[in-house]
Specification:
The chain is of the alpha/beta class. Helices cover 55% and strands 14% of the residues. It has an eight-stranded mixed beta sheet, with helices on both faces. Helix 1 crosses helix 6. The longest helix is centred in the middle third of the chain and has 31 residues. The chain starts with a strand and ends in a 6-residue tail after the last helix.
């Protein structure tokens, strides 16, 4: 099985590395900018590299991987589809977390069988991605989802088959649980700094309880896991908290929003 990679992104290169490791032949790598191509060939021995998309399509591989930014996936797939009349022997997938296989519709119309494969993990750089993609969770969607699940299993990781809407919900949830938690932690660091509490002190004092809260949230019911002034009915403390946040509009809105969210989950009317 040969494959071509369109988009030398961190995830694209790391995934190409894993495919080569399990026996796939790296044929072409395409990227708009040469420095990314130089990085790709440091990790994966592609037979050819190019910044010209049409050149990468002269010889169709068994597998096409599109690992570009979400907004560019449909455009790149359309350009690839214009390179040949028959893609009936080709499987194609993209690596977007949110978009589904419909983004590859132009390739499908030319005979390709399509899908999407998303590693549910944050990839800060290529070496980290190579390590993470060998053992992380993947979501598989589209007409080739069963083949993608076998590929993920061969890598050594854990695949889950989802339909289009399920994939969108999982990606939305991942944004909440990864990016927004990171933003909240940094907002708490800044709040501490505003009151002369050093980042080291903030981390030493609050990291253990934040990790406890995440663990409890997954392992226990909300009735078992929740503590704090809202559950105790300590509304004077809540008002004092909101007053402390009077100069921090975003955190104050989050605090009130989380109160409303908790009350909705436990079936009580908002305050």
């Amino acid at each position: 099985m040969s494959f071509s990679l369109f988009g030398a992104s961190r995830i694209g290169i790391a995934l190409a590395y894993q495919l080569h490791r399990i026996g796939y032949k790296p044929e072409f790598v395409w990227n708009r900018h040469q420095p990314r191509l130089n990085q790709a060939i440091q990790f994966v021995p592609f037979a050819n590299q190019t910044t010209e998309l049409a050149t990468a399509c002269r010889r169709l591989p068994n597998l096409i991987i599109i690992a570009v930014a979400d907004d560019a996936i449909e455009s790149v797939a359309t350009q690839i589809s214009q390179c040949a009349e028959d893609f009936s022997r080709v499987m194609a997938f993209h690596t977007s977390g949110f978009l589904n296989s419909k983004a590859l519709e132009k390739l499908e119309l030319k005979g390709a069988v399509t899908g999407s494969l998303h590693p549910v993990v944050s990839v800060p750089d290529v070496p980290s991605g190579i390590r993470l993609l060998e053992r992380c969770i993947y979501t598989c969607e589209g007409a080739i989802k069963n083949s993608l699940m076998k590929l993920v299993t061969a890598i050594g990781a854990k695949p889950y088959a989802l339909n289009r809407r399920q994939k969108e919900i999982v990606h939305l949830s991942a944004v909440f649980l990864n990016n927004y938690i990171v933003a909240l932690v940094n907002a708490i660091k800044n709040l501490g700094a505003d009151h002369a509490i050093s980042p080291d002190q903030v981390q030493a004092i609050l990291r253990p309880i934040s990790e406890q809260g995440i663990s409890s949230g997954w392992e226990k019911s909300i009735a078992e896991a929740l503590t704090g002034p809202l559950i105790r009915g300590d509304f004077k403390t809540i008002e004092k908290h909101l007053d402390l946040l009077s100069d921090n509009r975003e955190l104050k809105a989050l605090y009130q929003g989380f109160i409303d969210l908790i009350l909705r989950i436990i079936g009580q009317p908002p305050r």
